[in-house]
Write a structure and sequence with these properties.
Layout lengths: L1 H12 L60 H10 L4 E6 L5 H7 L9 E6 L5 E5 L12 E5 L2 H11 L5 E4 L15 H8 L4 E4 L1 H5 L6 H31 L6 H14 L2 E2 L4 E4 L23 E10 L7 E8 L6 H26 L6 H14 L13 E2 L26 E4 L2 E4 L3 E4 L2 E6 L2 E4 L8 E2 L3
Helix pairs in contact: 1-2, 7-8, 9-10
């Protein structure tokens, strides 16, 4: 009950405790013990904890960061439901269509038929599963109901929802939060036919799936170490080829990174390696059939995201910009300066709100970032949101820094992480992007990957 009570206090207050942002060259903020001694330190804007002042009362929110709530701790989940004034949380999946439900419920194997797991505000949970797949759910706490066909399913679902008035589902009104909008319209119709009011589970997801927890935070720093080393190795490889006047392609560099990811025990999507005009496409990924040679003078963008291949793995993401030359052209340097300052503007805003004990939404961060870019006169070159949540999935369950693709009105939650990655793209010419990973600690935003300050010239 202590854990549930702590979560209730956080949700009711909406408070995130942190210290103000420090100047760019401030010392790094405290980190969990890292098994890798050479893990990069935080970037230019990070929060540091002040020395205790005996004359001042201690901040009651100084350690107000909840542990990751799992479905094994039903009491804690029911505490979340109480705060949200919900009668229950109905988790649903069919053949992996709802990764949130799959990760939280964790059925054995890969069930293909529809299943439901209802966590009521009080009492024990109820699982509704197909008779042939009942074994996949034997480990779950609570009652078990089964069905054979669609007629049974509708009847049994009515039993599960009997007496409930308002429940949470992986649904988002008008698809406002796509990462949480996972339940199809037909299933929603079936749920509503049982006489219940459906609400979004977006806040519940933030306090369960999106929170890293201690093990996840440590695993994140391990991933950070590896992707930083891989990025350095890739750029060194390109430099060596250029100096020797040997050809080198985007795909060749990408495959070097893919091999390194596997060898280091990581998993993640194919890395982005873009050169020349391909950097102007924010979604470009080279393949064996679609790749370009890296030429002297080309801008180069490398974007890596990976996690350790274990259940507690939390993604780390980083994007780096280089030039295959001795000097960086002014137009590229100026564009990168704009995005790096916009990135730092986002960090300052988050830190300031945290210090004032005021929540901040992902949409607000995106608005501020694009407002800064607009003042620089290049807002038309923005093609994507400022950042996204990261947890066990690269596109995490927490608040995204987005008022561009969608309007994410969820508040950034302590204990979760996200990327900050503004970019500028000039079609047919070039593009630049700076991306860092950030953990929202009790002391404020903690930059976990190096924050690039200048475009890196490879031929020094």
């Amino acid at each position: 009950m202590k854990k549930a009570a702590a979560i209730v206090v956080l949700l009711v207050s909406g408070v995130v405790a942190a210290q103000p942002a420090t100047p760019k060259k401030a010392p790094p903020s405290p980190k969990p013990q890292d098994p890798y001694a050479d893990v990069p330190k935080p970037g230019p804007v990070t929060a540091t904890a002040p020395k205790p002042d005996a004359a001042k009362p201690q901040d009651p929110y100084a350690a107000a960061i909840p542990a990751r709530v799992g479905l094994a701790d039903i009491t804690a989940v029911q505490g979340l439901l109480a705060v949200q004034h919900l009668d229950g949380w109905l988790l649903y999946d069919r053949d992996g269509s709802n990764p949130i439900a799959v990760r939280l419920v964790a059925p054995d194997g890969h069930p293909q038929r529809a299943w439901f797991y209802m966590i009521p505000a009080s009492g024990e949970p109820i699982a509704l599963v197909h008779t042939s797949e009942a074994r996949n759910f034997e480990h779950l706490p609570g009652k078990k109901l089964t069905y054979l066909g669609y007629r049974d399913l509708a009847k049994q679902l009515a039993v599960v929802l009997k007496g409930e008035k308002s429940i949470a589902v992986e649904y988002s009104a008008k698809a406002a939060v796509p990462n949480v909008s996972r339940v199809d319209a037909g299933t929603l119709e079936m749920i509503r036919a049982a006489g219940v009011n459906v609400r979004s589970s977006d806040t519940l997801v933030q306090y369960t799936k999106a929170i890293w927890g201690d093990a996840g935070r440590t695993a994140h720093y391990v991933a950070v170490h590896h992707i930083v080393e891989l990025r350095k190795e890739a750029l060194a490889f390109v430099t060596k080829r250029l100096q020797a006047h040997d050809p080198v392609s985007e795909y060749e560099v990408q495959q070097l990174l893919v091999h390194g990811i596997v060898m280091r025990g990581l998993v993640g999507p194919p890395p982005v390696v873009a050169a020349g005009v391909n950097t102007a496409d924010p979604y470009y990924v080279p393949t064996a059939a679609k790749t370009s040679q890296i030429q002297p003078g080309d801008p180069i963008v490398i974007s890596l995201a990976a996690k350790v291949d274990r259940p507690e793995g939390i993604y780390a993401a980083q994007t780096w910009v280089a030039v295959a030359d001795k000097i960086v052209p002014d137009r590229i340097a100026k564009a990168f300066e704009t995005v790096s300052l916009a990135r730092d503007q986002a960090l300052v805003l988050i830190s300031d709100r945290s210090h004032k004990h005021r929540p901040i939404t992902g949409a607000e961060v995106d608005q501020a970032t694009r407002a800064f870019i607009k003042k620089a006169g290049v807002v038309d070159q923005v093609m994507h949101r400022t950042g996204h949540s990261i947890d066990n999935d690269l596109q995490g369950g927490g608040a995204d820094l987005d008022d561009f693709e969608v309007k994410d009105t969820r508040s950034l939650t302590p204990g979760t992480g996200f990327t900050i990655g503004p970019g500028l793209y000039f079609p047919g010419q070039f593009g630049v992007r700076t991306e860092i990973s950030v953990y929202l600690a009790p002391s404020g935003p903690e930059v976990t990957t190096p924050a690039q300050e200048y475009v890196e010239p490879l031929l020094k």
